[in-house]
């Protein structure tokens, strides 16, 4: 465990020290997030590419660890590199959603090639085998899981420090679960990733001086999704679905509610709006810091429940997941998360039409 502590500290220091240089570089190449509509909370251009700091810290620290990289670790690093390349292109050129999806599928497929996939899942039913062998279904299910979490983390990145903080909490949760399971490889990965995020957060928390951009949010989503395949294993091989779904609960549910809301209101699923949870909380009169801290608290509570789910039987874990989902859906319904009551400006409407056309 001492080596994990040392590598975590190294990861924090690398991320913390290089972020100012990445910020200057972003200004130099004009990789800036310029507010263009009311969905943007900030009022002045903010440099992007903060995700590059997290990526460099994660990559360098992994290469500094003792011993050779395992096959799965190489797969995660290669996949992360693909995600970063796609994210950088998007931050600089604002590519169409279909191209972003292609990068994500390519990265997820890389994981499968290197043996990181959902081969078995724990059976939630009271009959049949304890574990279900997915066979060829492992490929589409793994891709769906990785792409889904990648986009969920990307969509929640709407306030200073929100996505980075939620990712840090999720990473810490998976670290604890991995330690409890005796999965040192996954614990090491999450510890290093947590360090890279922690070193970046001082620059990203409100008032942020640099954003992660798509590079960072997609990198964190991809990395956490991949590591969860290794860290939330209840037995020798079976993926405990209830655990990561709870650990990543906030971005998952916020994304699902957004999709349902847009479908109900006849809008394209990929069209942006001001209906996310953080927007609702802001509309209630809370400031950015208050909203972010509330969402940190929600994420921490869900992370704690996921750790509990890891310690109990599979059937009880699925029951716990069902109860939590029902409570969250009820609260979301009461808070109007499924209503499209946000009016857009004419400029935003034109931008939405352009986005719909591009998609």
Automatic annotation (TrEMBL):
It comes from the Bacteria. Keywords: Cell membrane, Membrane, Transferase, Transmembrane, Transmembrane helix. It is found in: Cell membrane. Pfam families: Glycos_transf_4. The chain crosses the membrane at residues 6-26, 46-64, 70-89, 101-122, 128-149, 161-180, 186-203, 235-260, 291-312, 318-336. PANTHER family: PHOSPHO-N-ACETYLMURAMOYL-PENTAPEPTIDE-TRANSFERASE (PTHR22926), UNDECAPRENYL-PHOSPHATE ALPHA-N-ACETYLGLUCOSAMINYL 1-PHOSPHATE TRANSFERASE (PTHR22926:SF3). This is MraY family glycosyltransferase. It comes from Clostridium aestuarii.
């Amino acid at each position: 465990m001492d080596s994990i502590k040392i590598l975590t500290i190294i990861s924090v220091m690398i991320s913390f020290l290089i972020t100012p240089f990445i910020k200057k570089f972003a200004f130099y190449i004009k990789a800036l997030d310029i507010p263009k509509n009311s969905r943007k909370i900030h009022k002045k251009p903010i440099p992007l590419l903060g995700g590059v700091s997290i990526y460099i810290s994660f990559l360098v620290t992994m290469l500094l660890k003792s011993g050779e990289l395992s096959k799965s670790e190489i797969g995660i690093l290669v996949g992360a590199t693909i995600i970063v390349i796609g994210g950088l292109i998007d931050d600089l050129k604002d590519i169409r959603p279909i191209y972003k999806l292609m990068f994500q599928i390519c990265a997820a497929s890389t994981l499968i090639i290197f043996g990181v996939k959902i081969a078995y899942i724990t059976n939630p039913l009271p009959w049949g085998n304890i574990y279900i062998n997915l066979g060829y279904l492992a490929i589409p299910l793994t891709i769906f899981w990785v792409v889904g979490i990648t986009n969920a983390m990307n969509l929640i990145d709407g306030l200073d420090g929100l996505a980075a903080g939620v990712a840090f909490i999720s990473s810490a949760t998976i670290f604890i679960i991995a330690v409890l399971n005796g999965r040192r490889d996954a614990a090491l990965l999450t510890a290093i990733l947590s360090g890279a995020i922690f070193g970046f957060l001082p620059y990203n928390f409100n008032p942020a001086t640099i954003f992660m951009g798509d590079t960072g949010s997609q990198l964190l989503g991809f990395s956490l999704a991949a590591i969860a395949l290794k860290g939330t294993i209840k037995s020798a091989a079976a993926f405990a679905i209830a655990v990561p779904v709870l650990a990543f609960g906030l971005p998952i549910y916020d994304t699902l509610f957004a999709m349902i809301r847009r479908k109900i209101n006849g809008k394209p699923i990929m069209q942006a709006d001001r209906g996310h949870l953080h927007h609702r909380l802001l509309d209630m009169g809370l400031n950015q810091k208050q909203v972010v801290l509330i969402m940190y608290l929600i994420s921490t509570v869900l992370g704690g429940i996921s750790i509990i789910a890891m310690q109990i039987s599979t059937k009880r874990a699925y029951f716990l997941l069902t109860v939590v989902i029902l409570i969250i859906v009820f609260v979301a319904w009461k808070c109007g998360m499924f209503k499209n009551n946000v009016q857009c400006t004419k400029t935003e409407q034109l931008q939405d039409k352009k986005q719909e056309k591009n998609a």
